[in-house]
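[#protein-structures] MJ: dropping Alpha-aminoadipate--LysW ligase LysX here for a structure pass
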Amino acid sequence: MSDSLRIAIMTDETGWHTSRLKKAFRARGVEARCVDLADCRIDTTWTPHGLAIPGFGRTLPDAAFVRGIAGGTLEQVTLRLGVLHALRESGVPVYNDARAIERSVDKSMTSFLLHRHGVPTPATWAGESAAFAQRVLMREAAAGRKVVMKPLFGSQGKGLRRLGAGVGGRLAPLPPLRSFGEVAYLQRFVEGERPGFDWRVLVIGGRAVAAMRRVGGRGWIHNFAQGAACEPALLTDALADTAIRATTALGLDYAGVDLIPGTDGDASNGSAAAARPLVLEVNGVAAWRGLQSVTRLDIAAALVDDLLDRKLAGGRAPVALASGDANR
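AK: finished. structure tokens for Alpha-aminoadipate--LysW ligase LysX:
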């Protein structure tokens, strides 16, 4: 791989992850620099591309690695994703690209695509009707089940509410939807083993490369950010296959896939799939510090190798510009 390559690491914060990535790129003789999407702009006077990426002058990076997208208003986030779309339209490989990130950030679309592709996942409901959501809650409670209400956009186990029959069998009312952006996203709660745990499987370039168990944490929430302990986990065929299928369903180059043990009747697509692990979420901008602590694989190096040797090796497609030139 030529040492003239220049890669943009799209991130709103620098630290452990970006340091590991830059080190891995340097080991391959590639220059990588961090760029905040909030500092990029679409500028049709900025010839020849109409896209200004800080640190790259009037040229574009050879590829972009998306490490983080800062939250903001709907307009701000739309523009930041628009910059990633624009890079792709300009022939720049984006890892993961905006289309795939949009699918994984929106939990309702993740659930839809997992179900559509036959990937085992808990039964899920999403809509804007509080009355419908309350009926779902009542129906599930009558069957002796609980549901988890989640923000449609969110990560690290923040904002989750477990709902169902409480003390004395009384059913607590549905929380106001205004606290959840006026959207009710409900997922059937799967009662696991004690102490509770889930799996995080990392998929890179269509291969499951590492797995861990996240044990404990804040009650029934087992995210590393919520205090869960990370333990090595055997990457079984069932875990690997399910995680790969989930990543493929969303069109991601790499992903952190969260799974839990399935039991009869938990899966949204029938009991035939319920014996397999169930996919809870698919993270298209996955952190890996916890996983790195329990695996010997150099995860940053594996990500960089996949970007350079598979994604970028396919070549940048020539793009016709207003100037009549192709590419740069």
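MJ: nice. The two ends are 19 Å apart (CA to CA).
AK: one more thing. The CA atoms of residues 5 and 253 lie 20 Å apart.
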